[in-house]
Each structure stands twice: as C-alpha cells, then as structure tokens.
From TrEMBL, chains A, B:
It holds the Pfam family HTH_Crp_2. CDD domains: CAP_ED. It comes from Marinobacter adhaerens. It comes from the Bacteria. This is Crp/Fnr family transcriptional regulator.
Amino acid sequence: MVATQTVDTRYSKPVLVAVNTLADDENGLQPLRNHALFKSLSNADLQSLIAQSRRLRLGHHQLLYRQDMPAHHFFFVISGRLRLYRLDSSGVDRTLDSIAPGDCFAEVMIYADPARYACYAEALKSSEILMIPVKAYQELLDTNPEYAHAALRHYAMRAVSRFHDLEVMTVQNARDRLIRYLIDLLPNGATEGGEVELPLPKCLVASRLAMQPETFSRILADLKSNGLVRVNRSKVFISDPKRLIEISQ
Amino acid sequence: MVATQTVDTRYSKPVLVAVNTLADDENGLQPLRNHALFKSLSNADLQSLIAQSRRLRLGHHQLLYRQDMPAHHFFFVISGRLRLYRLDSSGVDRTLDSIAPGDCFAEVMIYADPARYACYAEALKSSEILMIPVKAYQELLDTNPEYAHAALRHYAMRAVSRFHDLEVMTVQNARDRLIRYLIDLLPNGATEGGEVELPLPKCLVASRLAMQPETFSRILADLKSNGLVRVNRSKVFISDPKRLIEISQ
DNA sequence: CTCCCCACTTGCTGCAAGTCAACCCGAGAA
DNA sequence: TTCTCGGGTTGACTTGCAGCAAGTGGGGAG
C-alpha cells in the first residue's frame, strides 16, 4: 500500500514522501527490537506503536524536516543514512550528526517543550525510515514504568555521547580534531587498528569538524604520506591507532 | 554538625570535603524545589531524598570528582560555581561547562551504564553543593510515573542544549564563536541588549571556545573598540545584539 | 562508447590565530 | 607601605588554515 503525502505544508518547499502503512507489513523491522527505546516493549505495545507509525522512503538529498518545524514525530532508520544539520544566518550549512540504520533521531522530541525540531534532517542516500508519533510513544510510557526506565537510560547515553562530541570540538587544531574523529570511529576504542568507513561524504565530515573540505583533504593526504592511514574512497584504514594518538599529542 | 570525609580513596589526591548532614537542616534548599528534577516530588519524597544526601562545602579550585571515577552521586549547586572539564593525553585542560547555583550536574549518571563521571568537576570559588545518591533518586523514580516524566523532560532539555553547544563549536572562526557565546548568555535571546556576566574566568571561556586566551582578549578588545560591547572585569555590556549578530554574518 | 557532473584534490596566496615574551594591574601577604 | 602572584593584555613573529581557482577522476546518463 503506497500513497503520497505532504508532511508539512506550512513551510516552503513541501516535503513529499512515499508512505507505506505498517499494520499489514512488519517485515524489516526486526532492528527495532534491538533498539534501547523499544527492546523492553511488550509485543502488543510494539505492534500498536508500529500500527500508528508510517514507513517513509526518502530519496537522495530529500529533506525530512526543517529546523523549528513543530515536532509531532520521531524517527527510526530502517535503511540508508541521514544527516542532521543547521543553517546559520548567512546560510552556511553545518553538519552536526549522521544517522545510521538501527538508530533513532529526534527522539528527544518525545519530551521537549516546545516540541520543535532542533535542526534540519535530510537523507544522504535513498533511505527508509519509520515515522513514530511522539504522542503514541508518550502514552506507552505511562502504561509501564519499565518503559520510562529504558527511555531514561537511552537519553543518558545520548547525553554522554554529545558531551564527548563537545569535547572533541574543543580540540584546537584541525589535524587533532580529525584524528580524534577517526579514532572514535574505530569500534574497539583504539586498542587495535582497523578500517573505518566515513559516515558522511568528506566535505560533510569537514563541516562536522569545523574545517574546510580542502583542509580535510590536505590533512588526510598528509597522514597518508606519513604512513599513518590508508585511504580508499570513504574507507580509512588505520594500522596503528596508538601512534596516531601520540601524533596528536 | 560538620565532619570531614574522603569521598573516594581509590584515586590519587583524595578529595577532602566538609560534610553537613541535612536531616536537621533544610535551610537554603528552597532552590531545589524550583529545579525540574525535584519540582514534582512530594514533600515526603523530597525530605527523604534530602535526608539521604550530604551537603558539601568546596574551596576555591577544589576538585569534586575525576573523570572515570565510579559515579554514585549526582549534584545540585546551592551556592558558588563549578566547572566541568576534561584532560587530554597531553594534559591540556579543556573546559566544557560551567555550573551555577540552582543547577544540577552529573545527573545523567542517574541512568548511565557504566556509571562513571564523564569529566572532572572542580569549584571555581567557595561553593556549597548537595550530593545526592543516584540510587536514592532511582528508587524514587519507581514509586511515581510522574517523576520519570519530569526526569525525561529535563534530559530532553539537556540534550537540546548540548546540541546547541555543539552547533556553536562548528562555527569556524574564533570571533564568531565568541559572539555566539555572548549572545547565548543574554537572558532574552538577543531581542534586547543587556549586561552579561561571564560564567568563567576569561582564560577558561577561551578554552571553552577552543581558542587561546590571547585570542579571546584581542577579539574582545576589538569588539570594544568598535563600540559593540563594553567590558568591565567579567561583565560584558551588549548594547545592540542585533548588530553583533550581523557582524558575525 | 562519450560526455558531463560532482566530489574531491592540489597549488598558491593572504589572513587569522597560535606562540612566545614582556608587561600591566589589582588583590592579598608580609 | 612594598612584594609577589595570577589573571589579563599587548606586541612581534610564525604558522596553520581558509579562500580561490584550476585540475583530476570516477560514476551515471545518454
């Protein structure tokens, strides 16, 4: 069942999306069960939540919501990839986060007041997401204290990780910020090397790290020529993270 | 009733604090009632929580906790001021936040797992804080769903404001970051001018904004000579925030 | 296949910010 | 009072990063 709807018409350039109701289609939603926000839900409650949700398909560069739009939904990424960004007064676009399949975003809106999106969200490639009404989840929280615990745990983790991001951004020079960023992408916390995939195109990683794309490119070329990394498109191979860390002092 | 105790002995330089149990002394705790985390508590529950808490007095530059210390408490500031910071591998100290009376901090630990402090915390001047056992608050959350709602609302606000901080740090040049910081200190969101007090000594504001103290000083001097601000010790008077914003493009 | 397009790279130049050092000045101690 | 100390400012110099512009190369459209 596929329809087309306008998510919000009060803003310029209405966002058009293909919609797929889920009551009759629960395939591909296993990952939901693995997410902290849904893991503890009873089957019945999860079904009910899914029934009230919509599955959206977003195309490359398609905008999902705008900053300051009233927020009635939060989102779960089934496939694809999105990014969160803001625009400053001069129209410069500053990337704040990237979202992978299995992640939630804008979930903070479940309790924010006033409930308005804090940034823009757009698909980086063709993506499928679940659009969950904030109200439905809120009501669920009331029915079982354990659900609230799960939500609190999730929020706490989020807060810690944002705090961590903030720390990286107080690193003063561009090279060290980039190194910190790469290290943080390593799954096993710098204990051993490995290949990491940049979650964003290079020019957006640059924006995320408060530097110009050219600077990003030059620093990476420099690390490469020093044998610290090997780069293949969006994949960066880090042989010796320890050495990388001591380079950054 | 005043005693002295060692907060944690497993780390070098044990932190010594003067302790004042609160069962018999509830004075000066009105501000607790105004904080989102405690506002909705019943009198009995609040009393019980206070009874399980300790009032600490910290001296100038006294360390309250270290990064990665196991976290069994979170804190409410009664008077004074604290700062949160991290140390990188080369020992450089990077300020992440400042805490004023009436604020909570490390409250994210109520639900973090593993529960370890994400940063260092030290008093910037003589301060009085309430040290609340995480476990006591957790247990309270179980007794009343409304308490969990309050906590979730609070966490959501925190997340939004950290997100905002992150955005400021992606501003590329030092002058604009400083301007954004000053604007954010204005109580009424840049609609009208006013005098703001820097919540940290200038050299720490500089660290918070990822710049050198000299750069901070020069930028402020420049804004001053352009008539955009007037500076008196730690107070900055902003006559026309609109103009300041357009300067920063 | 060819062409174009877009993401990225590279070279060059200038400016913003870091570094090092000297100096200032107010607060507190002697 | 004078001395010292610490936070802050200023100056001279150096450097890292940005800005612009030209070049490269892979992928998709036709």
